[in-house]
Task: inverse folding
């Protein structure tokens, strides 16, 4: 596979060590005899030439020797910094093993420890001190063909809260999945952290904290920085997709509303989580045999993830003929103060569409008794908030209760797979946000699904890039959800799994990308001419980690 022109051109390293120090160009011990002579590498490498496949064996051997997952994460990030082709070859060939390391749950621990494990900068940091010079910062990025940017301000990292600048692990991890799952060339990817401070006292007192040691910037100063950043992106990288990631509720909904129809942007926590959850519900209903419009969804947690899911479920119900009000009434929310109902006077704006007329309920268990839900969705970030009484109540109400414990990382899950199956007598249809191993229950092996946004955002991004869409619409996520559900096989459902096997991620992403691009063409949002074979064109664009020939 030939490298893109922007890689093969003037940005090539100088002779000698430069080739070994650039992660995109480096082949390590796989540089051929001819390349070693031409590039000035003779003597700088051991004399034996290895194949890429032999290098993969070495990486796996060393990876598996590491004593814990954080050490495995550090090892893989070091490999990414040295040799991106080899890193992505390992990741793509062993995705089920690697995904929990490069992303949830291990990336959460890595963000917590980012100051301690910091080795080499990756991505772009835009701080509150950079107001007025953000365009200049973007010009410092060495690659001009950026197509996708994942940006965070670190205020709500997974379910771990405010990690400030140490949240950079999230954009880095998400973009590695854009490549490994969605086939987006790594040179098209730019991770960004907006460092506006932190409210985390532990970080402010930590001498190894990598960010600004100040309280968070709020109000007009914050908005001006974000505006400057978004505007600078439009000028520096005109075709770039912006993915907002792990912003706090106070900003997430507001920023999505501000930019969604102005630039090519989406919020993964709101729209991506909504799509992956809707897809899981569609799959689960193939097991129960009951239509979506007969379901009552009860959420624990009414933040950006929960409301995003509720909005997409409501859109799906409207598509089936329900009025907007009737569709929203199938979704109910419990927050830290009880059931969200119209009579409450303490509700944030984003909760109001789901504040229905109903007597109040003080907690989740009483809400279950009152509403008799068929689907229980956890997006609270509160561990073990689906205890035995809650799961037993769901099992008493439903023959096959659908239990989605989606909070990340694993330590924040509302319940484990083992608990869900045990306390529902093996009848639960279960999925979680972070992975859990298969469970043996009364002679059956039950395989829990993982409602990971990695099933959605790489395909959405690939589709947006393939057709050069001007905007990302909610309807694209609806199409993505239906496509993902359609990729679930009967053999998956037979095991209790409501998502495809992780090993099929590239295939799934290509299908989602095609559906998203088709939606963009249908809406008149695509700037690129439509190819005769859209699906084939998208597959042909997907990155494959093979070494180019440099000599």
Result:
């Amino acid at each position: 596979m030939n490298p893109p022109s922007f890689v093969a051109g003037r940005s090539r390293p100088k002779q000698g060590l430069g080739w070994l120090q650039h992660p995109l160009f480096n082949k390590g011990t796989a540089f051929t005899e001819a390349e070693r002579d031409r590039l000035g590498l003779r003597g700088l490498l051991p004399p034996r030439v290895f194949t890429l496949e032999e290098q993969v064996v070495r990486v796996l051997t060393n990876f598996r020797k590491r004593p814990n997952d954080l050490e495995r994460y550090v090892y893989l990030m070091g490999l990414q910094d040295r040799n991106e082709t080899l890193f992505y070859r390992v990741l793509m060939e062993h995705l089920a093993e690697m995904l929990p390391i490069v992303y949830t749950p291990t990336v959460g621990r890595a963000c917590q420890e980012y100051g301690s494990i910091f080795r080499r900068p990756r991505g772009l940091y835009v701080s509150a001190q950079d107001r007025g010079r953000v365009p200049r910062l973007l010009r410092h990025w060495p690659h001009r063909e950026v197509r996708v940017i994942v940006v965070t301000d670190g205020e709500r990292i997974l379910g771990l809260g405010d990690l400030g600048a140490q949240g950079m692990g999230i954009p880095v991890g998400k973009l590695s999945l854009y490549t490994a799952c969605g086939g987006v060339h790594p040179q098209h990817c730019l991770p960004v952290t907006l460092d506006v401070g932190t409210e985390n006292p532990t970080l402010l007192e930590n001498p190894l904290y990598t960010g600004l040691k100040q309280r968070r910037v709020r109000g007009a100063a914050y908005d001006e920085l974000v505006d400057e950043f978004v505007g600078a992106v439009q000028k520096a990288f005109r075709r770039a997709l912006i993915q907002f990631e792990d912003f706090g509720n106070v900003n997430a909904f507001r920023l999505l509303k501000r930019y969604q129809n102005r630039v090519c942007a989406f919020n993964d926590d709101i729209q991506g989580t909504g799509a992956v959850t809707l897809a899981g519900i569609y799959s689960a209903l193939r097991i129960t045999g009951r239509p979506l419009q007969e379901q009552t969804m009860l959420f624990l947690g009414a933040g950006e993830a929960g409301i995003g899911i509720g909005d997409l479920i409501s859109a799906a119900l409207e598509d089936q003929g329900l009025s907007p009000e009737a569709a929203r009434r199938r979704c109910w929310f419990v927050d830290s103060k009880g059931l969200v109902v119209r009579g409450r006077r303490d509700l944030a704006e984003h909760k109001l569409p789901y504040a229905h007329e109903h007597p109040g309920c003080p907690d989740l268990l009483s809400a279950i008794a009152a509403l008799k839900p068929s689907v229980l969705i956890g997006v609270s970030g509160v561990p073990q908030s689906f205890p035995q009484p809650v799961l037993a109540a769901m099992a008493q109400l439903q023959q096959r209760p659908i239990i989605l414990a989606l909070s990340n990382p694993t330590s924040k899950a509302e319940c484990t797979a083992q608990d869900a199956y045990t306390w529902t007598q093996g009848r639960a249809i279960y999925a979680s946000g972070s992975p859990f191993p298969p469970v043996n229950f009364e002679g059956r092996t039950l395989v829990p699904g993982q409602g990971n946004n990695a099933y959605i955002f790489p395909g959405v991004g690939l589709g947006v890039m393939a057709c050069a869409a001007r905007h990302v619409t909610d309807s694209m996520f609806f199409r993505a959800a239906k496509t993902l559900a359609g990729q679930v096989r009967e053999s998956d459902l037979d095991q209790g799994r409501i998502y495809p096997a992780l090993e099929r991620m590239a295939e799934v992403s290509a299908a989602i990308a095609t559906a998203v691009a088709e939606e963009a063409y249908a809406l008149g949002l695509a700037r690129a001419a439509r190819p005769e074979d859209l699906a084939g064109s998208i597959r042909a664009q997907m990155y494959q980690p093979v070494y180019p020939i440099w000599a």
